[in-house]
Design a protein that fits this description.
Bound molecules: fe (ii) ion
CATH class of the largest domain: Mainly Alpha
Distance between the termini: 62 Å
Strand content: 5-15%
Largest sheet: 5 strands, antiparallel
Number of domains: 2
CATH topology of the largest domain: Hypothetical protein af1432
Shape: elongated
Radius of gyration: 26 Å
CATH superfamily of the largest domain: Hypothetical protein af1432
Strand order of the largest sheet: 2-1-5-4-3
Structural class: alpha+beta
Number of helices: 14
Length: 299
Amino acid sequence: MEEIEKLAKFPTQNPNPVLRISKDGTVLFHNHASEPLLEHWHYEEGKPLQDRWFQFVLDALRDDDIKTVETEIGDKVISLTFAPIVEKDFVNVYGLDITERKQAEEKLKETLDATIETVSKIVEVKDPYTAGHQLRVSQLTTAIAKELNLSPDKIEGIRVASLIHDIGKISVPTEILSKSTTLSDIEFSLIKEHSRIGYNILKAIDFSYPVANIVLQHHEKINGSGYPGGLKGDEILLEAKIICVADVIEAMSSHRPYRPALGIDAALEEITQNRGTLYDLEVVDACLKLFKEKGFKFE
Ligand SMILES: [Fe+2]
């Protein structure tokens, strides 16, 4: 104990929690600042930690690698780092109050969300026929991404990219966007430019997920027949493949200037028929499951 106290001389003055936990889950040392944490853990002296927290100790020792976790204690968010000292069979735990950082991140996310929503609306003012299109596509892409068990980061990336995937249409003349007759080749090539223009608009923004590239690729088809790159299969980002499918479903089930709504059944038929040629197999299957088994509906 004396040795631990000596080793832990500095931690006693540390305003943040510092603890030492043995491989059997008992707390060998804790400083004053750890008391709320021990209370939060319902720790009883001499007994092992509760399973969830004990597991971090075991994992850190087994992998000989630090483990970090965030936990809420009252109105504070504490980050805990479990640092293994393998040859001594114990783990040092360092706590850090990250409440302010969390609040700042939250505020930043709110600001970014409001900005994205605004950008999303700008293109829809220009192209009223697709008003709400991006929002509905984003409802479906997020649902597909969840169905495919993608990570929370990827799901967030796809949500954001979907909300602004047609931003490049601000460069297409309104007369072409709202034309009620068939488009000429030149007009169609102008519309096709929207993927690359969207990419150019978004590429300078550091989103922490590849939003610009997802937007660039959202009209690529897995057999290489899409645009602008004619990319195939694995060359296309999964997020772009998901938007591609959701885009078709939403577009076909909504009214367009050149035709009435074709309906959801026709849309599901389209992706089923071209499953594995134009559209990614897994994405199509997840989408069909959502509509046929899980009762997905656009809000
Ligand atoms: Fe598009």
